[in-house]
Design brief:
By secondary structure, the chain is α/β, with parallel strands linked by helices. It has a single domain, classed as 3-Layer(aba) Sandwich (Rossmann fold), CATH 3.40.50.880. The chain has 9 helices and 6 strands. A hairpin with a 2-residue loop joins strand 5 and strand 6.
Length: 198
Amino acid sequence: MYHSAKENGYDVTIASPQGGNIPLDPESLKSMLIDKLSKDYETNQDFMKLLQNTKSLGEVTGQQFDVVYLAGGHGTMYDFPNNTVLQNIIKEHYEAGKIVAAVCHGVCGLLNVKLSDGEYLIKDKAITGFNWFEEAIAGRRKEVPFNLEAELNKKTSKYEKAFIPMTSKVVVDGNLITGQNPFSSKEIAKVVMEQLKQ
């Protein structure tokens, strides 16, 4: 998403729950998951400095963005679901008609977001996210705190997944855009950029 946003002339703010350094998940850097573009960013010192000096969610509260994008990685399953600051940022932007997008495990940040009417944001929404079979393929079922697919299915009957695991799947429901797994990253970025131009 960062690459597509910069390529299309957008300013990008990178934030994390506490601010400061965002550690990279070593599993996400394995050769099966990482393409040349991602590898180039991993060795780009300027980009890595951005990841080491992120703003905290508290610092960006109240700011308006065209898109709120939740990146993936297994760590998000611990950091995102119960973060009320993140929930408020998502709620405010979603209700303002701004794009809220999430990919892979980052989708877990949508689980507990409630709108002003008290309903969950994802209630009755078409959505996708890293599924339980993909978690088995990744060998991480014992490491994750919960089954993301099962939790999504508790709150919406419109969970979707690709027929073939570990292939791209992007689901759009109004201004909510979700990608299933790391292989959906390029497609979700493309879809978000297209929606921004509308």
